[in-house]
Amino acid sequence: MEESTPKTSAAYLQIIALREKIAKAFSSSIPASAITFTLDKERAMLEAIEGAIKQELDLEMTYNNVTKDSSSRRSITPISIIVEDKRTLVSAYCHSAKALRTFNLAQISEVSTKERSTRTDLERLEDSRGSSAEVIIKSEDSRFLSENASSLKELSKSCYQIDIFQPEWIVRSVLAGADSLELAKPLELRAEIAERANRALLAYKG
């Protein structure tokens, strides 16, 4: 239509204006400034987290839960940064959850450093990494027994040894299977389990 309309015609200018309006409406390009801002913001937070790890500082952060469409303030002790193909993760001890957690950098909207608080819980877990645990399995129908049979070394009747690669895993496993599973050693993880069970009981009563 544009080609067949004389440029001197009043309709020609209307056609040009309409074409530009349609092109703009269907444009899906993102302004370069928006991309730069997002990258700069994540880079600044990443540098702050790296600095906290090197200086042994804790972090206060605002974390956005995409699933629940909500945000929360967290106090964490950052341990390491994990770079994957499509995301960057922050491995940390969360003082709110009293456990090791992994946070997606893209979901952190604000971060600030502060003096490191007590590391008792964190050290209790980390000191056990790479060691072994002794567990007492009270039932042959135990889910823990069936899922980890190849990794368990029988020490005596109902007592087994298993290597600990993730301390948080063994703590959660014992808490989840408390009716048929008991941790005998190491004592520091046994104490951690007892403390969490007591907190859960107090929360339930409250």
Key terms:
single chain; 206 residues; alpha+beta; five-stranded antiparallel sheet; 6 helices; elongated
Concise account of the structure shown:
The chain is α+β, with helices and mostly antiparallel strands and 206 residues long. It is built from 6 helices and 9 strands; from the N terminus they run H-H-E-E-E-E-E-H-E-H-E-E-H-E-H. The strands form 2 sheets. A 5-stranded antiparallel beta sheet has the order 4-3-2-1-5, with helices on one face.
User: How do the strands of the widest beta sheet line up side by side?
Assistant: 4-3-2-1-5
User: What is the count of helical runs?
Assistant: 6
Largest sheet: 5 strands, antiparallel
Overall pLDDT score: 77
Low-confidence stretches: 24-37
Strand content is 25-35%
Indicate the structural class: alpha+beta
Q: How do the helices and strands follow one another from N- to C-terminus?
A: HHEEEEEHEHEEHEH
Return Rg in Å: 28 Å
**Tally of strands:** 9
| Envelope shape | elongated
General description of the model:
The chain is α+β, with helices and mostly antiparallel strands and 206 residues long. It contains six helices and nine strands. It has helices at 10-25, 32-55, 120-126, 143-147, 167-176, 187-205, and strands spanning 58-65, 70-83, 88-94, 99-104, 108-114, 132-137, 153-156, 159-163, 181-185. The strands form two sheets. Strands 4-3-2-1-5 form a five-stranded antiparallel β-sheet, with helices on one face. It has a four-stranded antiparallel β-sheet with strand order 7-8-6-9. The longest helix has 24 residues, at 32-55. The relative contact order is 0.10. Mean pLDDT is 77; it is low at 24-37.
